[in-house]
Amino acid sequence: MDKVKGKSELSKRLVEKIAEKGPGAIVGFVPTMGALHAGHTALMDAARRECDVVVVSVFVNPTQFNDPRDLELYPRTPEADAERVASTGADVLWMPEVDDVYGGSVTKVPVDVGPATSVLEAARRPGHFDGVVAVVGRLLAAVRPHRLYLGEKDLQQVAVLRAWARTAHPEVEIRVCPTEREPDGLARSSRNLRLSGADRQIALHLSRALFSCASRVSADGDVAAAIADGRAQLQQVDGLELEYLEVVNGDTFLPGSGVADAPVYAVVAGRVGGVRLIDALRLA
Questions:
Q1: Distance CA 7, CA 127 (A)
Q2: Looking at residue 117, which CATH number applies to its domain?
Q3: Which of 177, 206, 232 delimits the end of a domain?
Q4: What is the pLDDT of residue 183?
Q5: Within-domain flag for 78
Q6: Residue 119: φ, ψ to 5°
Q7: Which pLDDT score, from 0 to 100, does residue 66 have?
Q8: Of 156, 177, 198, at which residue does a domain stop?
Q9: Other CB atoms closer than 10 Å to residue 134's CB: what's the count?
Q10: Is the backbone peptide bond immediately before 263 cis, with ω within 30 degrees of 0?
Q11: What is the mean pLDDT of residues 127-131?
Q12: Structural domain that includes position 270
């Protein structure tokens, strides 16, 4: 694995790797913000199975944080990240600095792709998806991949990037991998590193509520009742500040109600011990 920093070095390594694989080599790209875990490994493994050349980036993007304190506290584990990326057989690890990505102008512009950029995460984190699109656009321009690998846990981010990429980068195929979970069901997240032992037990209620909703929908098909009950249960959990538990169409993020609106997902967000966590689970 080659570890690079600047865009010129990245471009040079990519040319070499693609030449080694021969004409028609498929490039897969896994963008991350580091503090890598098994969920990231699953994305890299999928890219390794399906592509000839795999590029992974580790970059904590400042433009997607609407809370400066959240940016400051975001976990950073560069040495462990490099070891994990190397273990997957990726070809290139790109670990740029802010200037390498933004060229000295750390800017973003408003993005509107419909409800996915106006509700839930978008409403609670103003400018967040503007920053996501800003950085992904710059990363794609540098890597020029054929396939982009994303995780389903960040469902609204996936919906935004899919809608945006249809016109901005139609040449890129977006591949979405299922959420990786701990044995007890907690969605794997870099932010989990900030949870104390007690807070982690509280955080489990988020994923348990999703699975409870899914079980009820499977049993009686009543999505609205399942969500209402799940919301009521989470509101009673000490130490958990529930922001939302809603049901949406996973593509449009319009409100969902049942199989006719498939793909229907339950999405949840809450704060535990000052750490904001999100999760998503398909219901129908």
A1: 26
A2: 3.40.50.620
A3: 177
A4: 96
A5: yes
A6: -115, 165
A7: 87
A8: 177
A9: 21
A10: yes
A11: 97
A12: 190-279
Contact 257, 224 (CB under 8 A): yes
Residues 220 and 166 in one domain: no
Distances (CA, A) of 31 to 37, 116, 254: 13, 20, 27
d(CA 169, CA 151): 19
Q: In what order do the strands lie in the sheet with 264-272?
A: 240-249, 264-272, 275-282
DSSP state of 64: G
The rounded distance, in Å, linking the Cα atoms of 215 and 93 is: 40
The pLDDT value given to residue 284: 81
| Beta carbons within 8 Å of 16's beta carbon, 6+ residues apart | none
pLDDT at res. 261 = 67
Per-residue pLDDT, averaged over 213-222, amounts to 91
Q: CA-to-CA distance for 146 and 241, rounded, in angstroms?
A: 40
Adjacent-strand bridge partners of 149: 175
> Which amino acid would we find at residue 222?
D
Is the same domain home to 91 and 230? no
Q: Is the pLDDT of residue 258 over 90?
A: no
173 and 55 in a common domain: yes
Tell me the whole-structure pTM to 2 decimals. Answer: 0.95
Nearest to 123 by CA among 234, 261, 269, 272: 269
C-alpha to C-alpha distance for 190 and 58, rounded to whole angstroms: 12
Task: Reply yes or no on whether the pLDDT at 259 is more than 70.
Answer: no
| Catalytic residue annotation | 40
Q: Does the pLDDT value for residue 80 go beyond 70?
A: yes
| Distance separating alpha carbons of residues 50 and 233, to the nearest angstrom | 41
